[in-house]
Amino acid sequence: MTSRVYRLHSTLELQLDDVHEFFDGYELPVEIEDVEVTRRNNTLIVSAVAAEDNISKYTPTAQLKASVTENRIYETEDGWSETPPDPQNGAASTDSDDDDDDGPQWGSLGEGGQLQEEEEEINSKLVEYACFKGDRETVLQNTALQYPMFVVLCDLAKFAEKGTLTAIAAVDDELEATRIVDGEERSASIEVIDDPREREGENTVNWRDNKFISDD
Prior knowledge:
The chain has helices spanning 16-24, 136-139, 146-159, 196-203, and strands at residues 4-15, 32-40, 43-50, 63-76, 79-81, 124-135, 140-141, 164-171, 174-181, 184-185. The chain is α+β, with helices and mostly antiparallel strands.
């Protein structure tokens, strides 16, 4: 039985260093001997290497594909974050009734009597992110070893702290739904609906047998 992924949508984002860290300590599915992580300009490709020789070396194996972008992160009291910290030592009003809100703040006067804004310098840096974003054909490519690489992608989604992965796959003749949000696996279900083509057929006018049309 060959398991297959039918639908997949991903918005996963990880720091590029975290992707390498994930694969350094990751135990691959038995069907995959190794993965090759390569970068081509702003594209990151993670390709599966088959554990058995029954796949020709000329057969493209499944691969995960991500775009590489730069995001600025900021140093906060809790560590590095994509959200800049609140300004410190800003012009905040005091609780004392004796203070005149309309008067100058003498502590903020600089040379020459001009007001100066007290701004604390925020430490920041640019970090590269791998963005596994798109549908199945964009994120998970090629058929050989497709499902084992889907398992790898699911584990990567659990390792990530940002993004969502949703998918429908067939495993042992059973459809399974997957939903992982911000590193946490969530409950998911599959809803079966009528084929829209069947509904269109029911609503189509039968011009050959219509009581409003008569032959002269």
